[in-house]
Amino acid sequence: MDTLQENGLPPSPAHNIPVCESTAKELGVCGTPHKTKGKNGLTERSSPVNNVTAEFGDQLKVPSVNAPAPSTTPLGLPGVMDEEGRVDESRLRMHIFKNGGVSPSERGPVWRFLFGMYPCSSTSLERPLLQEQLKVRYHAMKRKWQQLFPAAVRLRLNGTDAELVAAVQYFDVRQERVKLQAQNQSDEVRERLSFLELQAQVLFERVTFDLEELQEAIRIIDKDVPRTDRDLPYYS
After folding, report:
1. Which of 40, 165, 176, 182 is most exposed, with the fewest beta carbons within 10 Å of its own?
2. Please, which residues have CB within 8 angstroms of residue 30's CB and are 6 or more apart in sequence?
3. pTM here?
4. Which has the closest alpha carbon to 5: 142, 139, 122, 124?
5. pLDDT digits over 215-232, tens only?
6. Over the range 5-41, which residues count as b (16 or more CB within 10 Å of their CB) and which as e?
7. Are 165 and 50 found together in one domain?
8. Please, are residues 147 and 17 in contact by the beta-carbon 8 Å criterion?
9. What's the angle, vertex CA 168, arms to CA 116 and CA 230, rounded to 5?
10. Is 135 found in the same domain as 104?
11. Within this chain, do residues 164 and 196 fall inside the same structural domain, yes or no?
């Protein structure tokens, strides 16, 4: 049986779940850039984000982000991938150990196999379909927790991180690009994605959450995340 298909899943009506999106303008916050040395030897506040204004009311350019490698990109590692795109996991790990890793251009595709995103037994033809399935399931899972915690749907900032504001804006820009790309999809692609969406909804309807355990995890995260902010004097 094809590992990329799941049989026995009846169709399920689609849920009209509103997705709240936040933009940099809606956030209306100011960031705290990193500390750098100025021309006069004084400590200045600067940010790696280009053209971040003090009010974030005007233009906010986001840093460039490299697009992920296509799922059909072959690994350029000798003897690791066969003609159909299957990966020999033992040879892959041996190559990493012997060479101290892989080149930066190979890291993205390699991690997908090491983390189990793609089974090493999958072919180059199967992986694009698998990637579509994982993407649809991700969004279905995201909508499920948004139903459980509607207050967490909209990101709220307290004006402490310019880079996070830029990341939020970059996310909104990417969402607009995805919408434009969806308009140009063929009927065959739309039909396939609709089927995957229904399949994912049925799958995650069967998943239950331990709300008490989930609330405890959220409480721990809320305590731990500020400790990673080195701009806070207590943790610097």
Report:
1. 40
2. 54, 55, 56, 159, 162
3. 0.52
4. 122
5. 888 888 877 776 776 666
6. eeeeeeeeeeeeeeeeebbbeebebbbbbeeeeeeee
7. yes
8. yes
9. 85
10. no
11. yes
